[in-house]
Amino acid sequence: MAEETIFSKIIRREIPADILFQDELVTAFRDISAQAPTHILIIPNHLIPTINDIKASDEKALGRMMSVAAKLAREEGIAEDGYRLILNCNEHAGQEVFHIHMHLVGGHSLGPMLSKKR
Ligand code: AMP
């Protein structure tokens, strides 16, 4: 059994978060340490630790994460100028919280997709 993270507590509203959207499948809230004018995390309500753990039965929630990202981008007024969706998996990508989350970032020009540093 995968261990719950702080995100499960946010989903159950046991700890405070700036929740922008929640339905039966996903929850979206502002990142506590914003890296851009808009920085929102969109997560499935059930625990999937990493992208490597995705099963076919998760596809409905994962699809909902995408449509909620598009809806929130429109609501934030960044849809036309553009934004980036980021999913980090494991150590090389710098994943810190082991409950899949999609970062929705935008609000200014985001620069190159990847750092050239290695
Ligand atoms: P990652 O590096 O992809 O695992 O990203 C984890 C993200 O979760 C970081 O951007 C953190 O700032 C964010 N984060 C961690 N704890 C919280 C929290 N309690 N509320 C909102 N965002 C959080």
The largest sheet has its strands arranged as 1-2-3-5-4
Largest sheet: 5 strands, antiparallel
State the low-pLDDT regions, or none: none
User: Radius of gyration from the CA trace?
Assistant: 14 Å
State the helix count: 3
Considering the protein shown, what is the CATH homologous superfamily? HIT-like
Class based on secondary structure composition and strand pairing: alpha+beta
According to CATH, the fold-level topology is HIT family, subunit A
Report how far the terminal alpha carbons are from each other: 34 Å
In total, how many domains does the architecture comprise? 1
Highest CATH level, the class:
Alpha Beta
Taken as a percent bin, the fraction of beta residues is 15-25%
- Helix share bin: 10-25%
Tell me which ligands are bound: adenosine monophosphate
Overall shape: it is: globular
Overall mean pLDDT stands at: 97
Strand element count: 5
Describe the model.
The chain has 118 residues and is of the alpha+beta class. It has a single domain (6-106), classed as HIT-like (HIT family, subunit A). It is 24% helix and 21% strand. The chain has a five-stranded antiparallel beta sheet. A hairpin with a 3-residue loop joins strand 1 (19-22) and strand 2. The protein is globular. Residues 6, 17, 31-33, 41, 88, 94-97 line the site of adenosine monophosphate.
